[in-house]
Every structure is written in structure tokens, then in C-alpha cells.
Amino acid sequence: LRKKNQPALSIHNKMIVYSLAQAALLGGIYAAFGLRVVLLFVLAAVLGIVLLETVNYIEHYGLARHQRADGSYEKVKAHHSWNSNHILGRTMLFELSRHSDHHYKASKKYQLLDTMPASPQMPTGYPGMMLLALIPPLWFAVMHPRIDKINNGVEAHVELV
């Protein structure tokens, strides 16, 4: 906004516009359905945010792209995100578990995502990983040895039984 010589407190500030839109949505829900439904809506939204951020944490934990000499980072490849080929997670999450292929070819439709053998494999599907992430000491005990194998060039895509 400074570059465009616009005031921070104006209709040009997208954060203000988005905040007003959210307030209007909550006001509309309140007017139509009452406080109980507003509270349930907010609870559902918070749950959705927590699930989204948990999945994001799981998908990228411990994996990094290398920085080039010019300061840019290497192109995103299949080994920059965790993959899972467990049927339950694949079915429940509409192929979200094939996250590495999404990074490799972002324009690919989710129904067509493939498993990427070169990507690191999660020890369980997404539901199991989400439960594991709730217990940090256990999460670290399971994930850090896998990350060490990846960083040392040892294949880490063998599934744990």
C-alpha cells in the first residue's frame, strides 16, 4: 500500500476487506440461525484450520530444498515432501497422500496423482501420522531417524511394519 501511496486503513487493504467479509459472514449466520450455529461454525472452522496445518506439518517435516549460490532455492522435486501410498488415507483424502507428485507437477489433477518412488515415505498413512504428531516425543523418535537417513543419502522410503 505504501508503494501505491494508499492509506493502510482503506478499502485497498485486502486484510481489512477480508476481515469485514468474515464478520459479515458470521453476522449473516447469526441473523439466520442464531448464536449456537455461529459457535458451531467457528468450531468447525478452527478444526479445519488445525487439520490443514497438521497435514502441512506432516507433509513437509524435516525436508528442505538446498539454496543455490545466487540465493535462490532448487526447484521443488518429489523428494521435498513426504508421500504415503496407504489405501485408507488415499481414499479418505482424495489422493492427498500422493503429495509429492502434486509438488512435482502442480497442474496435475488430484485424481491423476501418482505415487513417487523417489519421495520419502511416511511410516503410516495420514490418519496414523496425524495421531503420531499429537505425541511429539514419539513423533521425533519415529521421524528423526528417517530424516537422518535422507540427509545421509540412505534410502528412506521403506515402509515400517
Task: Record the SSE blueprint.
Blueprint: H1 14-33, H2 35-60, H3 87-92, H4 99-104, H5 126-133, H6 136-151
Helix pairs in contact: 1-2, 2-5
Give the low-pLDDT segments.
Answer: 155-161
Q: Please state the average pLDDT score.
A: 83
Task: Work out the strand percent.
Answer: under 5%
Q: Overall 3D geometry?
A: extended
List its traits:
161 residues; mainly alpha; 6 helices; 0% strand
Q: What does it look like?
A:
The structure is a single chain. With 161 residues, this protein is mainly alpha-helical. Helix content is 51%, strand content 0%. The chain has six helices and no strands. The chain has helices spanning 14-33, 35-60, 87-92, 99-104, 126-133, 136-151. α1 crosses α2 and α2 (35-60) packs across α5 (126-133). The chain is extended and about 55 Å long. Residues 155-161 have low confidence and may be disordered.
In a few lines, what is going on in this structure?
The protein is mainly alpha-helical and 161 residues long. The protein has helices at 14-33, 35-60, 87-92, 99-104, 126-133, 136-151.
